[in-house]
Amino acid sequence: MGNKVRIERICEFCGKTFIAKTCKTRFCCKACNDKYYKELIRSDRYNAVTKEVKEEKKKRIRLAVDELEVIQAREFISLKQLAIYLGVSRKSIYTYMRIYEIPFSQIGSRIIVKRKEVETVMMNLKSVKTMQERPIKSTKTITDFYSAKEIEEKYQISYSRLYVIAKENNIPSATLSGKRLFSMEHIDRYFRKLGYKEAEEITEWYTIEQIQKIYKMTVKAVHSFTSRYKIPKKKEKTGNTTLYSKKHVDEIKNARIGEDGYITVPEACALFNVDRDTVYNRCKWYNIPKKTKGKNVIISIEGLRKVFGTGNIAINNVNEPAIAAHE
């Protein structure tokens, strides 16, 4: 005959209400029973580990106290014991011994010190100098600002690019009547580093195509040259064309030639857009006259022009002089 007892109980694991057939039923199903059992085992393990850690900490504290009492009872102690006694690292002990001239004795390879002498040295130390605090930089009030439109017109850049520049370089900004303003000093400083100049300062400009045609350079060489010597540049609104200062390009390309027709190696590199190794290589293979003036090596401009000015010699091909010699 089946049990007709029906008791309403609450599951101890999930909290749901269920109908139990016995007074001792604690869970609504086998799944809750298993989960509760696993949780109980996990909790017991956690408590056991936590208890072990606490006991280990107490044990270590007791050992440290006992060791400190042993050190205090000894007249002579080792450097390791001295480090424990002072509460510092062993490396710091060597520093203290050098700075404060703590006396020590050496027995074989072991160094020992007298505990009372260490205490005497430490008691006689002068007051420790407090670390000098760094002076707080006085904040400078920014009074001059650019609007986004003024920056776009002056440096020929888009607003999206301006926003990226301001974010990456932490340029101070402010908002006035819904319009965003940028610090004039920080904006000008950023573009000066890039070589940008105001249009009023420079009136004549080169395009990349003009530099290529006049100085017989590739597009890559033009970009490398203008970047290396920080040639002032600007961008035109129409066509998004980059312009470079004619004055600065001509000054570097047409390097000053000495009274005796010689120029320095850096001037030759700038004039012919080559590196130092190429200049010395051509001087060797074509016997271009060169001499020493003080600490600088100067090279004949005429000899260089005969080699680099013909346009028939591949400048970057170091094996070509040998081929030309055979011909």
Q: N-to-C terminal Cα separation, in Å?
A: 121 Å
Average residue-wise pLDDT: 78
Overall structural class, as computed from helix and strand content, comes to: alpha+beta
Number of strands: 14
Unreliable runs = 127-133, 310-327
Strand numbers in spatial order across the main sheet: 3-5-4
Q: Can you give a write-up of this model?
A:
Strand 1 (7-10) and strand 2 (17-20) form a beta hairpin. A 3-stranded antiparallel sheet has the order 3-5-4. A 3-stranded antiparallel sheet has the order 6-8-7. The longest helix is centred in the first third of the chain and has 44 residues, at 30-73. The chain is an alpha+beta fold. It has helices at residues 30-73, 79-86, 90-99, 115-123, 148-155, 159-168, 184-194, 208-215, 219-228, 246-253, 265-272, 276-285, 301-308, 320-326; strands spanning 7-10, 17-20, 76-78, 105-107, 110-114, 145-147, 173-176, 179-183, 205-207, 233-235, 242-245, 262-264, 290-293, 296-300. Helices cover 49% and strands 16% of the residues.
Give a concise summary.
With 327 residues, the chain is an alpha+beta fold. Helix content is 49%, strand content 16%.
Name a few traits of the molecule.
disordered C terminus, 327 residues, alpha+beta, three-stranded antiparallel beta sheet, flat
